[in-house]
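stuck on this chain:
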Amino acid sequence: MLTIIAALALMAPECAALPRTLGGWERSGTGLDTRHATTIPAKNGAAETQVTIRKAGAFGIVADQPGWIDVAREKGRPLRMEARRNGIACAGIAKIVYYRLQPGTYRVTIAKLQTPQVKLMLVHGDRARGFARGGRVG
């Protein structure tokens, strides 16, 4: 049995280095930011926080678990997402959802969560890989 486990461990692919935009995923801080991740409590399968954008651009919300991510102006309707990217399982990232944001404050809501807290991070859009451009990305 031990031999099988050791063989499987040798066959498992090693987690590649995270892209530069996700460099802060392992750092913990307060508030949704591009320099670190933050953990917020969930109640009844949902969590909410705010983010302030200073410069217009494409931004992604990174989550450590599956869930429905909505971004809206403070009292507005949810924005249409620009793109979605599957996560990086070995780094504990379940998904990244990209939005085109103008300067201002936004409400970020995550629903259908499986645990009582969620780890989030804000990232800049990765144009080199085709994410967060105008039009359909797919």
Observations:
- The longest helix spans residues 2-11.
